[in-house]
Design goal:
CATH architecture: 3-Layer(aba) Sandwich
CATH class: Alpha Beta
Number of strands: 7
Shape: globular
Order of helices and strands: HHHEHEHEHEHEHEE
Structural class: alpha/beta
Helix content: 40-55%
Strand content: 15-25%
Bound molecules: 3,4-dihydroxybenzoic acid, magnesium ion
């Protein structure tokens, strides 16, 4: 099987499970027109984030890495009434595009975009008692994944879910000699989580329009 075939299947699934969604389609188009990298989650993955957040009745959610706001729209839509998503993004241009996409989706009052480096913003979120969060999505630079995960656990309510994107990296995760800092970040994350008694976790490999990768799902005990 090739990426071309995985893409066809993703398109087929999209037509069935995530049809005609003008706000999401506009977000994809505006992100592309603005030159943002094509790294947002796929529609099927976006809907999975939505279903997970909705299943646990999450009211407060945290996202690390907004990009163009595509996943933020999915997560914000899943939140219980009065819910709020705080989404952190380092790149000012991405924040600007995401702000437009989220407003266009009618979610401007549910999503708070915080520009800056998550490593600096996460302690502020703790100090301001913005948590605890019921749902966290980590999808930023991969090098800092271990630190982002540690913060996510600290800021989580009991029973909270934490999803980490891109933990398989085309299968390179098994290479214990890799010099690639993003793969090393993912490997470090796995080893850390395996020992972490505060969470129960698993990782699922995925193929699709975005290639071969996977996501980690952890539940805070
Ligand atoms: C990359 C990052 C992502 O979040 C993603 O979903 C795909 C690729 C990357 O940095 O290469
Ligand atoms: Mg990603």
């Amino acid at each position: 099987m090739t990426r071309e075939e995985w893409t066809k299947v993703d398109e087929y699934l999209g037509r069935i499970f995530t049809p005609d969604d003008p706000a999401l389609q506009a977000a994809i188009e505006a992100s592309e027109a603005a030159g943002l990298p094509d790294m947002a989650v796929s529609p099927a993955q976006g809907k999975l984030l939505y279903l997970l957040a909705k299943s646990i009745g999450a009211n407060r959610a945290l996202e690390i890495g907004t990009l163009g706001g595509y996943s933020a729209i999915w997560i914000a839509r899943a939140l219980a009434d009065g819910g709020r998503l705080i989404s952190l993004e380092r790149e000012p241009h991405f924040v600007e595009i995401a702000r437009g996409n989220i407003a266009n989706a009618g979610l401007g009052d549910r999503v708070e975009l915080r520009p800056g480096d998550a490593i600096d913003l996460l302690p502020e979120i703790e100090a301001e008692h913005e948590g605890p969060f019921g749902f966290t999505f980590i999808d930023a630079d991969k090098v800092n994944n271990p630190e982002y995960f540690e913060w996510a656990v600290r800021l989580s309510a009991p029973g909270a879910l934490i999803v980490v994107d891109n933990v398989i990296r085309g299968g390179r995760v098994v290479d214990d000699r890799t010099a690639d800092p993003s793969v090393r970040g993912v490997r470090q994350l796995n080893e850390m989580i395996a020992k972490d008694r505060r969470v129960e976790a698993t990782t699922i490999q995925t193929v699709g329009a975005k290639g071969y990768d996977g996501f980690l799902l952890a539940r805070v005990v």
